[in-house]
Design goal:
This protein has about 180 residues and is mainly α. Helix content is about 65%, strand content about 5%. The chain has a two-stranded antiparallel ribbon.
């Protein structure tokens, strides 16, 4: 005996599938490509079914943004663990931020979607005990360079110049972060 034909479709975990679909869309094209309808189409459910899980596209974008920020945090954690501290740590963090932006432009756009506070705070947290203006300057330099439409070599050159004004070597204790107006 054959199974009866179903006219409906049931997805096991539609919410998780929608988040993954939105993440894939964001990876490919950033926030503008993430819509409830596109995520539904990607998963194979009706657009109306999406509203059982997300009432607005902003709700879905926020979930994807948090996931993109976690990936960025992992990249920054890795940079911290491989660095030697002080100015080298700061440079490693800025370079990790820059490489994430270059390698994953869609996810970088998601990490910054709706405001820069979360990305800024993430970098500041990883820079560590430096004064707040220094932590903000490091993020500003890395973020600004990430937005430049130039080659990777030119981005690194500009980042080095900017960080030289933020990270100053100390003869006694090695690299020390300082703020120079």
């Amino acid at each position: 005996m054959t199974a009866p034909h179903r006219n409906t479709y049931h997805h096991g975990d539609a919410r998780a599938a929608l988040v993954q679909a939105a993440f894939d869309l964001a990876r490919a094209g950033g926030p503008p490509t993430v819509t409830l309808r596109a995520a539904a189409r990607h998963v194979g459910i009706t657009a109306a079914a999406v509203y059982r899980h997300f009432t607005t596209v902003e709700e879905l974008l926020e979930v994807v943004k948090r996931r993109a920020l976690r990936l960025l945090a992992e990249r920054l954690d890795e940079a911290v663990s491989l660095s030697e501290g002080g100015g080298k740590r700061t440079k490693a963090i800025a370079e990790a931020y820059l490489s994430f932006a270059r390698e994953h432009p869609g996810l970088f756009g998601m990490a910054c979607h709706g405001g820069l506070t979360a990305a800024r705070d993430l970098v500041a947290e990883h820079v560590g005990d430096a004064p707040r203006p220094t932590r903000l300057a490091v993020w500003s330099a890395a973020h600004g360079v990430a937005l430049l439409s130039v080659s990777e070599a030119e981005q690194r050159q500009v980042l080095d110049i900017l960080l030289a004004g933020i990270v100053a070597p100390s003869a006694e204790s090695g690299p020390v972060i300082s703020w120079r107006p």
